[in-house]
Design brief:
- This protein is of the alpha/beta class and 300 residues long.
- Helix content is 47%, strand content 13%.
- Helix 2 packs antiparallel against helix 3 (31-41), helix 6 runs parallel beside helix 7 and helix 8 (159-173) packs parallel to helix 9 (190-206).
- It starts with a helix and ends in a 10-residue tail after the last helix.
- The structure holds guanosine-5'-triphosphate (GTP) and magnesium ion.
């Protein structure tokens, strides 16, 4: 776990470490203005940045250390209070992954299959991105890497039909969890959003309660535009959780604080690389602390 959080981009971490050190102590003039600017630079968004800086100031911290702790607590307080564990108690459970093009869906499906296989869930992955033959092959290659079977439809086939067949087969064969990889689509493409809603609906016909988990995969580099993605996908299906991918390469991690504060949807998983083990359960405190440095330190 520690290694996962240490992979959160050093640029994200450096931002707060260097910036807060430069701002002096909470008793220095201009400290809170600089803190606010730092939060804006970290893509927390201007309104929340002002709010967080005010909340910390009102607690009257006297040292940098106490201010840092106050900021972590206030960040945690405005993030979602919903459970962050995956809803995969039912056997089989269906986890639907979707998001804009290239956000990290297929990679996340592969990494999650690897983790859940190690936990004894006997995952089945489903290549329901039937638009491109290469997408099916990419999912198959990941399944092989994770050591799990892959259910694939024909290129050009109906993704909902693929998911229906996969879920029925998973129930027959005793798989614990079914991970469904879907084609990338923009939150503004209504026909493609409707197609996704149909996949979810048809999943529920094959397996009561499916999809048990409906995860929007976000590219951590996209900062504040993630908010409109979450709003858009949320119009056609209930988003039960977020996956924050590519957090090993971005300085814009603060956006997730804004998304959770506005939509109340919890981030459940964080992706920090392209290896099978580069995925972890999201933890608010560790995330907030990681903004300040590997061990949450400031100034040293
Ligand atoms: N560094 C890093 N790269 C990642 C991570 N997740 C995904 N990638 C890379 O990002 C690129 C896109 O990932 P995919 O998993 O193919 O994304 P996708 O959402 O399935 O893409 P489409 O199916 O085309 O919409 C690939 O090169 C991945 O290796 C991550 O956590 N860290
Ligand atoms: Mg894909």
């Amino acid at each position: 776990m520690t290694s996962i959080w240490s992979k959160v981009a050093s640029r994200t971490r450096g931002l707060f470490v260097e910036g807060l050190r430069a701002a002096g102590t909470p008793l220095s003039p201009g400290f809170y203005e600089q803190l606010e600017e730092l939060l804006i630079a970290g893509d927390v968004g201007p309104v929340l940045a002002a709010d967080l800086a005010r909340r910390v100031r009102e607690r009257r911290p006297r040292t940098l250390e106490v201010a840092r702790e106050a900021l972590i607590e206030e960040m945690s307080a405005i993030m979602s209070s919903q459970p962050r564990a995956l809803f995969i108690d039912a056997r089989p459970s269906c986890v639907l992954l979707y998001g804009v093009n290239g956000s990290g869906k297929t990679t996340t499906a592969g990494k999650l299959a690897y983790l859940l296989a190690a936990d004894g869930f006997a995952p089945l992955v489903v290549a329901a991105d039937t638009y491109r033959a290469a997408a099916i092959e990419q999912m198959q290659a990941w399944a092989e890497r994770a050591g799990v079977p892959c259910f694939a439809g024909r290129p050009g086939g109906d993704p909902a039909a693929v998911v229906f067949d996969a879920l029925q087969m998973a129930a027959r064969r005793g798989h614990g969890v079914v991970l469904v990889d879907t084609a990338g689509r923009l939150q503004t493409q209504q026909n493609l959003l409707n197609e996704l809603a149909k996949v979810a609906r048809v999943a529920g016909k094959a397996l009561p309660g499916a999809p048990h988990e409906s995860l929007l995969v976000l590219d951590g580099n996209l900062g504040q535009s993630s908010l409109s993605q979450a709003r858009g996908f949320g119009t056609v299906l209930p988003v039960t959780g977020l996956v924050l991918a590519k957090m090993d390469g971005t300085a814009r991690g603060g956006a997730v604080i804004a998304i959770e504060a506005e939509l109340g949807v919890p981030t459940k998983l964080i992706g920090v690389g392209e290896g099978p083990a580069d995925l972890a359960a999201f933890d608010v405190r560790r995330f907030a602390a990681s903004l300040f440095g590997e061990n949450g330190e400031v100034g040293g």
